[in-house]
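Changelog-linked ticket: adenosine-3',5'-cyclic-monophosphate example.
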Amino acid sequence: SIERTLSILKPNAVAKNAIGAIYARFESAGFTLVAAKMLHLTREQAEGFYAEHQGKPFFDGLVGFMISGPVMVQVLESENAVHRHRDIMGATNPANALAGTLRADYADSFTENAVHGSDSTESAAREIAYFFSDNEICPRTR
Ligand code: CMP
């Protein structure tokens, strides 16, 4: 079925001037962008977004990284969007990311893995609502 997923280009991907290249990959892969914004997250925004990871050993480093520069946050729509976005991102640990995936090409480390994507349709609904109000979602009309 047609789904939406929440995608974030992390500060290292933005710092590499790779926004356009990565958006081109999304579009070539058949995703429709239905919302997008650039944000420099506050610590509170980053901690809230990653609340499920609070207390894990990588949490403080992850939050510090995510607030180190601007991010691009976007909503991608396609058939089976959650899984298809995860496929083109590659494995969370870039050491395991297949050639040709976004993380193989743009990640610097497990934490600085260039891209975030929702891991389920339930997460996608929560994560999309975390960053976008309904009137910021722009379904295509042509
Ligand atoms: P992301 O998809 O943004 O979701 C949570 C992030 O935490 C994940 O990508 C990684 O960047 C980071 N992360 C998860 N597990 C580890 C780990 N074991 N070591 C370092 N970073 C991790």
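Closing comment: Example verified and attached. Residues 53, 58, 62, 92, 110-111, 113, 116 surround adenosine-3',5'-cyclic-monophosphate (CB under 6 Å). The longest strand covers residues 71-79.
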